[in-house]
Design goal:
Layout lengths: L1 E9 L8 E7 L6 H11 L3 E7 L5 E6 L4 E2 L3 H14 L6 E6 L2 E8 L2 E7 L4 E2 L7 H5 L6 E4 L3 E4 L3 H6 L4 H7 L3 E6 L6 E7 L4 E4 L6 H12 L3 E6 L5 E8 L2 E6 L1 E10 L1
Parallel strand pairs: 2-3, 4-6, 11-12, 13-15
Antiparallel strand pairs: 1-2, 1-18, 3-4, 4-5, 6-7, 7-8, 8-17, 9-10, 10-11, 12-13, 13-14, 15-16, 16-17
């Protein structure tokens, strides 16, 4: 069986920036084990598969090299990019149905705007011992959680200079968002560590912003914000909070189209 694979850099306007995703359109679902093996072989933070559903909608699933996850932003953005630019999709919005509910993506000029659930993290008092040491930071301003552990630091430089111990983080069994207020017109910055999912540091993480947006919206008293993820590749997002939903917008760049045989 032959499958078409597109590799797309998401949340960037420059090739080799943002977060690369492998996008594989399907006519029908493959066996879970096969999709997981393909994701492992691709060895990107996410491989995304989607199949046609009713009313021009699609069903969508995401796999890291080691597990299936319930929500992924950059690979969803990349999927919409593939539909509009390679698969002749003509509708004003793409609607994906996922394990996290309905996800809508609208193309606005060069931006792709995603409508995702808002996951407001709650403060927690008891968190893993040696958390600051494992993250390679000196001081933690607060710890919160929804799906992932959100660790607030005081300033952008603290996030930039963090030196995480991925072995120690993996032992915690947590995915960790590191965040702080931004500078120079950026509202907030972040990094994302997920060695439990086979990803030491994710370049740009849309799903983490389902937590980050309501968190910073409340702290900054703003509905619309500009965010950056401070990975080596870097990523830029324009985000907003609208009740129990968030919008996450970014650009994509095409890198490769190929064929795999399984």
């Amino acid at each position: 069986m032959k499958l078409t694979l597109y590799q797309i850099d998401a949340f960037t306007s420059k090739l080799f920036g943002g977060n690369p995703a492998a996008v594989i359109p399907l006519d029908n679902w493959l066996a879970d084990e096969l999709m997981q093996n393909v994701a492992m072989e691709n060895n990107l933070s996410e491989t995304v598969f989607f199949v046609p559903a009713a009313n021009s909608d699609y069903e969508i699933r995401w796999f890291t090299p080691t597990i299936e996850i319930n929500l992924c932003g950059h690979a969803t953005l990349a999927s919409a990019f593939v539909l509009y630019n390679f698969l002749d999709y003509k509708h004003p919005k793409v609607v994906f149905h996922s394990k996290s509910g309905k996800l809508e993506i609208e193309k606005r000029a060069e931006l792709y705007v995603m409508d995702f659930p808002a996951w407001k993290p709650q403060p927690i008092e008891e968190y893993p011992a040696h958390l600051a040491e494992s993250l390679g930071v000196e001081e933690i301003a607060g710890v919160f959680k929804h799906r992932d552990l959100l660790v607030q630091l005081k300033k952008q430089e603290d996030v930039e200079n963090a030196k995480p111990d991925f072995t120690a983080i993996k032992k915690m069994g947590e995915k960790i968002i590191l965040t702080a207020p931004g500078a120079n017109g950026v509202d907030f910055v972040s990094r994302f560590f997920a060695p439990t999912a086979g990803i030491n540091e994710d370049p740009v993480t849309g799903s983490a912003h389902s937590q980050l947006i309501p968190f910073w919206s409340e702290k900054l008293n703003k509905k619309k914000m500009h965010a950056k993820q401070l990975s080596h590749r870097g990523g830029e997002l324009w985000v907003g909070l609208w009740g129990d939903r968030v919008t996450i917008a970014g650009q994509c760049v095409f890198y490769m189209k190929g064929e795999i045989e399984v």
